[in-house]
Amino acid sequence: MSWPLQSDFIGMLKNPPVGFRDPELKQCTVEMNQLGQPKARSGNFATVYRGFRPDGGEFAIRVFNRRQDEQLAHYRAISEYLEGRGISSVVRFQYDQQGIRSSGDGKLYPLLTMEWIPGTTLFEWIQDRCQERHFEALLIAAEAWLRLVRELAEHEVVHGDLQHGNVMVSPETQFKLVDYDCMAVPSLLGRRNLETGLPPYQHPGRNGDTRLFSGLDNFSALVIYVALRALAVSPELWHTYVVQPAYDRVLFREDDFRTPPSSPLYRDLLESPDQQVRELAYYLFELAGRDLRDVPRVDELLLRCESNRVPAVQARPRSFRSTAFPRERTGGQEPLPASSHPSLSRPKPATEGTLRRGRRAASRSAKSQPPRLGNSASERTAGTGQDVRPSVAGPTPTSKTAASHRPKREGTSSGWLWWFIGSAAIPVLLAILTTLILLFWRSL
Q1: For a designed S-S bond to 130, which of 151, 163, 238, 295 qualifies (C-beta 3.0 to 4.6 A apart)?
Q2: What DSSP letter does each residue of 235-250 carry, written as one string?
């Protein structure tokens, strides 16, 4: 069966009482353009129109452009899952299998209606903030973006096409997601994705064969978060990479991820005044060359950034294989360490101070205790690399000092005997002396 043309639906949009099946929609009006035709906003799967209810409320009318049973089943599954779930960033919608009539054959076709989101796109909002050099607003937006991503993960919802045009910023500075053609809920995971999303927000490894899975949004979420954080400390990046070349994306290009060493943006981000931006940018470009399924959530990367700054003596680097950076091992090849980025491998003053204090404590301990004999590895001071074993050629100064202050066993016994005899003789001598004095006094 052939699918009606958009012109067949437009004729019905001009006459809502006839075109819609729902009694409430029959009472609405549709926004018109200067030519007196319904104002259309075209998309891949559907065309969007703006409707007005009798009470003045606005809503979006999505009329599908072609027949695609898989897409229609997709929307039914999403509508059923979202029912009763209050996800603040997701706009509730109603899917009607027989919602709008075609003027061509008079039959009813699927229709989707949802709340109309007032405001601007994320691209326009960022542009205004950069021109105003409103650093704090961009930083607050980055935190709000994190909350949005966490909320989706908490409810097991995957948007599938996170990009500047699908993120609306309301007048209250709240993020709202639109366009659910790529969205996935638990019942849809494992199916083929119907769209591959907008580059460069999507991972370079995503294609038409990619299956829907819970981490599909991780890369695009990281791209937007890094852009917001980077612009919050260096808003001039917007003029350099967007305004000057008249570019219509937020900072990044596909070529940046294909060949990072030749990307000026890559170099600028790694020289950002903000250490966390440098680290996250490094992770972002590194992950672009990894497998799509190995990209972790933004929160996990933030934890890794924090762990890189813990002042402690580092043992063997933790492997990234379980989450972010798997590496195919060949022979004795080690996994990519967390500190492979130059900015993450510099020695930290707190660590050096800890080592110096450890050396001083070891030195004091060696002077206060007699030397131990033996040549086992356990006698090497931990963490300092200093060998505190005595020299084979002769006693150390430490051993001489200890020997000179150590009394002989027999000397100690005789000392106690003489002390006891002296203590007993003193009272006797005093008694004799007192008796002699008294006798001499009487004789006088």
Answers
A1: 238
A2: THHHIIIIITTT--SS
Enter the CATH code of domain 120-309.
Answer: 1.10.510.10
> Which pTM does this prediction carry?
0.68
Please provide the DSSP assignment of 22-85 as one string.
Answer: STTGGG-EE-B-TTSSB--EE-SSEEEEEEE-TTS-EEEEEEESS--HHHHHHHHHHHHHHTT-
Structural domain boundaries of the chain? Answer: 6-115, 120-309
Q: Is 82 helix (H, G, I), strand (E, B) or coil?
A: helix
| CB-CB neighbours of 338 under 10 Å | 21
In terms of DSSP bridges, do strands 46-52 and 58-64 run parallel, antiparallel, or are they unpaired? antiparallel
SS3 call for 98: strand
What is the mean pLDDT for each group of 10 consecutive residues in the chain (444 residues)?
86 94 94 93 84 93 85 87 89 89 92 90 95 92 96 96 94 89 93 90 94 96 98 95 96 95 96 95 96 96 84 40 36 37 36 41 38 34 36 38 41 55 68 76 69
Contact 77, 186 (CB under 8 A): no
Q: What φ, ψ does residue 46 adopt, rounded to 5°?
A: -145, 160
- The values of phi and psi at residue 383, to 5°, are 80, -10
Token pair recorded at residue 64: 């599908």
CA distance 224 to 146: 10
Phi, psi of 122 (to 5 degrees): -60, -35
- Architecture label for domain 6-115: 2-Layer Sandwich (3.30)
